[in-house]
Amino acid sequence: MQSFETSSPEEKLFAVRIETKNRLNLISVRDSISEKLVFLLTTASAIVIVFIFIFIVKEAAAVLQVNSINFVTTSGFDQQIINAYNAPADKPIWQFGALGLLLGTLTTTLGALLLAVPMGMSTAIVITELAPVRLRYILRIVIRLLASIPSVIYGLIGLMVVVPFIQELLISSELQIRYIDRFQLAGNSMLAGIVVLSIMIVPIITALAVDAINAVPHHYKEAALALGISHWGTILRVILPAAKSGILAGIILSVGRAVGEAIALSMVSGGIGNIPQPGDGMVFFLTPVLTLASAIVNKSEIMSVPTIEAALFACGLVLLVTCVGLSLCARLVEYLVKRGEGRA
Amino acid sequence: MLDYQKLRDGTGHVLAWLFSSLSIVACLSIIFYLFIRGFAQINPDFILTPPNPTLNQDMSGGISTPIAGTFLLTLTGILLAAPWALATAIYLAEYGGSQAMVQIFRLAIDVLAGVPTIVIAIFGLAIFSLPQLGFLSSMVEGVDGVERSFGRSFLVAGITMAIMILPFVIKICEEALKAVPNYYREAALSMGASKWQSIVTVVLPSARQGILTGIILGMGRIIGDTAIVWLTLGGTIRMTGIQPWWYPVHWWSTLCNTGSTLTSYIYFASPAGEGNMPDKAFGAALVLIILIIVLNIFTDLLERFGANKIKGN
Amino acid sequence: MEKESFIDGVLVHSQSSTTFSLDSSIISIQDLNAWYGQTQALKQVNLKIYKNQITAFIGPSGCGKTTLLRCLNRMNDLIPGFDLKGSIELQGENIYAPGYSVNKLRKQVGMVFQQANPFPQTVLNNLKLPLEENFRKLGKAQLKQIAIDKLKDTGLLEEVKDRLQQSALKLSGGQQQRLCVARALAIDPEILLLDEPCSALDPISTSKIEALLIRLKERYSIVIVTHNLQQAARIADYVVFFYQGEIVEQGLPQEIFITPRMKLTSQYLQGMF
Ligand SMILES: Nc1ncnc2c1ncn2[C@@H]1O[C@H](COP(=O)(O)OP(=O)(O)OP(=O)(O)O)[C@@H](O)[C@H]1O
Ligand SMILES: [Mg+2]
């Protein structure tokens, strides 16, 4: 206090300058620390995917070394799991072939797409173009709700409603007896999986298609209507083509979702890795199947056996590679379409 | 005369309405069915008693610990994911320009968004089974006699959940930040604020609605996920930490041990799981869907509030 | 017989009024009032559009030119809250009568927007799409021939003949605008509406479009909105001056530009607002 009063004006000014300089320093130090921290966390977010790859490859390595490409070209997964489980700890069995799971994944996904794409696209068109404004709002809420219903609930309802329904409607005891050597027909089937899965991905396709259609500049629509083209013609020939990249990206995304869906399918699709035979006619769809993702859930309880653990991680790796491929594909499609239109 | 265009337009309209009603009817009947089947189960006892693993449906108790588990897990997950995602979004929206590095970051996060939750679940299991990370769960002896980490606990599941929702929350936060007009930032900077100050004092507050929406939607995802819970929290129905698990002194133990959530309870109690008590599963499913609906209403209100505010300005 | 005169350095060039026939109106607008929600955009508009003539709408920004233009092919139906009273008759039929086919109307009344809006598809597709939608029965070769003809009509063929399969969005602004004119002509309308087609164009593209319009009026009746008074003077056969939703004055360009009767008109022409 005393010294402050006696100090000259110059000294005071000097003190103030030092102080502001320190404060400025403090601010810039804080700024650079924050920026570094934010950068670090961003790097962490980006590097997670690399870690996922490393860890899953590491865990799956043993199975992949033993089976190499045979892992995806041979079948018999269920029996192999039992063999591996019963093998003595000093003579582990590493033979696995997940072709059945691959086909189960493929058939359920394709089937679900076949149902969900027209449903999702129609809903999107109704929401963006056809419905009156009030109804649009309600529909959007319903779709959002549908998108946020947990998969286990879809699984539960599939199991309690869809599966018995299929059994009652399509499976007779004669049919069951006819196929008893190959598998048990019980309603838990590829068809049940397709139905449940398609309802699950409809909201994804719808939401992304709605965004894509809404992003189409209004003047394309005006141009088409002003040419005397009907509303539906405008939707079909101008609006949807202009929204194509977003719609395709959405469909690809929903494929990823369908391929990776584990819980709901493990509940309704049968849980056995049969290879559906097209020669079976309708029974093709009634075959109990197992998908890559649901296999991981179904067999997770015996994961403590290292061979089985490695086999399940190998399934995970196939899934991971597929889905990463799909993500990249979605980006590529978006880019290519935009470039074709001269917008990128 | 058959006019191609009229025919096409007519069928188009009919099909569009038909298919869309189908998806709407599907949604409404799911909700309706859940209410019908679940409503009979809902009573204070069901909500407040812990489940009891038995095959007798009448003795199997309620869902108090699964509800608690859901809250615990959601809280852990979002507390980890929110700051992490926000920081990433800040970097991408405020600092990152269009350099190659940022493009790669974006691509990596984009790819992460497409990874199925089941894959993230086994990744969580793999990484947290490392003995070095045993402190997050508990140590067990493997079949080969080697000590390894159990790799399953609320903490482990929470971290895995955080990874699962990370890209999703990042995206919403980034969009919220990008929606803040540039002149807000310029005004702050011209008044002598540093970049970080302008972010903290101007950008984040104006984007808080969007950020909050992202956080709530992220919570919804955690609440609804089953695959990660099943693999990294396990199929145990009761809390396995030191009892009583809710004593504050036991919290760390509770977090480092396993339990259940509503979703894993539903899976367990469904005919697909071991419990096989579908009525209880429907009761829990109803509670779960109500939680989800409440979150949905929240985001809807937030959105409308946000829209009003912009109009008001 | 052509007649030229200068007002304020503006070259007025128009055909002699002897070729101008007031009987041959194709559209007749009576007591038209239009609202966007609560705000009235058009008040008591009475106007005739003459056959094979160029009618120009002029007036300050926001005076309702676009609104009236969009009433003529019912594009305003798309705007929620838009409301209209009065009648617009196309060849004696009220286009707002219930049951009147909007699609048919729009085939007769083509429109070119202020902003060039080709579809994000190939140049050729931009022409083929409206043709396929409107003339289903024509064969593929015929469709292509018409498309080529329309490109020729608009003087675009030479410039884009190597780029027919490229995206129309890669053309220059002026080329895009002429493509839009070609597209509008492709469906063979009787009337062509143009909303400030040259507002974003350089003088060369502008004069190309003007020349095009003068050629086109042999076959079409044309309505053009423009802010460019010189342009109106150069090409119009009939000029309508709007102010705050009302028609202040309408008549032959000589009358409007040389001897305006209303004070508002002369003020506007002198650039006072
Ligand atoms: N979609 C709309 N919704 C509400 N009001 C509108 C809409 N379009 C135009 N208006 C209003 O109607 C009035 C007339 O607009 P219009 O677009 O017809 O003017 P204009 O003469 O074409 O002007 P400009 O020369 O600037 O294009 C204006 O006051 C405008 O604000
Ligand atoms: Mg206008």
In brief:
Chain A folds into 2 domains: 2-63; 100-340, Orthogonal Bundle (MetI-like fold), CATH 1.10.3720. Helix content of chain A is 78%, strand content 0%. Chain A contains 16 helices and no strands.
Estimate the helix proportion of chain A, in percent: over 70%
Cα separation of the termini of chain A: 68 Å
How much of the polypeptide of chain B forms β-strand, as a percent range? under 5%
Write down the secondary-structure element order of chain B. Answer: HHHHHEEHHHHHHHH
Radius of gyration of chain A: 29 Å
Greatest chain-chain contact: A-B, 97 and 91 residues
Q: Which ions and ligands are bound to the chains? A: adenosine-5'-triphosphate, magnesium ion
Please give the structural blueprint.
The complex is a heterotrimer of chains A (344), B (313) and C (273).
Chain A: H1 2-6, H2 9-67, H3 70-73, H4 77-86, H5 99-130, H6 133-148, H7 151-170, H8 173-178, H9 190-214, H10 218-226, H11 231-242, H12 244-260, H13 263-268, H14 283-286, H15 292-298, H16 306-341
Helix pairs in contact in A: 2-16, 5-6, 5-9, 5-12, 6-9, 7-9, 9-12, 10-11, 12-16, 15-16
Chain B: H1 4-39, H2 44-48, H3 64-95, H4 100-113, H5 117-128, E1 139-141, E2 147-149, H6 154-178, H7 182-190, H8 195-206, H9 208-224, H10 227-232, H11 251-256, H12 262-269, H13 278-312
Helix pairs in contact in B: 1-13, 3-6, 3-9, 3-12, 4-6, 5-6, 6-9, 7-8, 9-13, 12-13
Chain C: E1 2-7, E2 10-15, E3 25-36, E4 39-50, E5 54-58, H1 65-72, E6 82-90, E7 93-94, H2 102-108, E8 109-112, H3 123-134, H4 140-153, H5 157-160, H6 173-186, E9 191-195, H7 203-216, E10 221-225, H8 229-235, E11 238-243, E12 246-251, H9 253-258, H10 263-269
Parallel strand pairs in C: 5-10, 5-11, 8-9, 9-10
Antiparallel strand pairs in C: 1-2, 3-4, 3-6, 6-7, 11-12
Bound molecules: adenosine-5'-triphosphate and magnesium ion.
Adenosine-5'-triphosphate binds at residues 36, 39, 41, 61-67, 79 of chain C.
